[in-house]
Amino acid sequence: MTTIRLVQGDITRESVDAIVNAANSSLLGGGGVDGAIHRRGGPEILAECRKLRASHYGKGLRVGQAVATTAGKLDARWVIHTVGPRFTPEEDRSELLASCYRESLRVADELGARTVAFPAVSAGIYGWPMEDAARIAVETVRATETAVEEVRFVLFDEKAYDAFARHVS
Predict the structure, then answer these.
(1) Judging by beta carbons within 10 Å of its beta carbon (0-12, 13-18, 19+), is residue 110 exposed, middle or buried?
(2) Helices 130-143 and 158-168 meet at what angle, rounded to 10?
(3) Stated pTM of the model
(4) Predicted pLDDT at 89
(5) Mean pLDDT of residues grouped by 10 in the chain (169 residues)?
(6) Taking the CB of residue 112, how many other CB atoms lie within 10 A of it?
(7) Would residue 10 show up in a list of annotated catalytic residues for this protein?
(8) Macro domain spans which residues (predicted)?
(9) Cβ(140)–Cβ(102) under 8 Å?
């Protein structure tokens, strides 16, 4: 059974097998968690992302999918990039958000990762309400069959931490 832990802090400082990046579809870096991972991880991550774009992902990574690269200078073996959906009240995209967690765990299993750190995917600039993002994340991780032993949700601030804590307890 997978253990779920909550940490308030900077995901780029975590020591795990794999860090999940809330990437944009270009895989070439961006703001928020994505930018922080690329900055701290160094140019090796971007170089592998460019190779992915030149081969299998010429049009970018689709929403809800996941792919791994090296972790560069991060204290991890891999970065698993996943593209979360943008929130819109007009369309229920919950299944796409859940897919980000399922697909990231599938990739982690393929890699042999036993510890994985997730941010709150889509809850930043993509506008997903934190309470709902936390519910979907925790429910999906609990429902997904995986060999990952520990999922660590690394939340940037107290508001996010508290939202996740309400769904983990």
Answers:
(1) exposed
(2) 40
(3) 0.96
(4) 94
(5) 96 98 92 94 95 89 97 98 97 98 98 98 96 98 98 97 96
(6) 12
(7) no
(8) 1-169
(9) yes
Distance in angstroms (rounded) separating the CA atoms of residues 93 and 85: 7
- Show me where the domains of the chain are located: 3-168
Pairwise CA distance, residues 12 & 19, whole Å: 8
Catalytic residue among 34, 92, 132, 162: 34
Q: Class assignment of domain 3-168?
A: alpha beta
Separation in Å, CA 122 to CA 4, 111, 159? 19, 24, 15
**For residue 150, what pLDDT is reported?**
98
How far apart are alpha carbons 113 and 107 in whole angstroms?
A: 9
Closest CA to 151 of 13, 19, 45, 10: 19
How many other CB atoms sit within 10 Å of the CB of residue 4?
A: 17
From the list 6, 34, 38, the residue with the least C-alpha distance to 22 is: 34
Other Cβ atoms closer than 10 A to 134 = 25
Two tokens at 163?
Answer: 């939202």
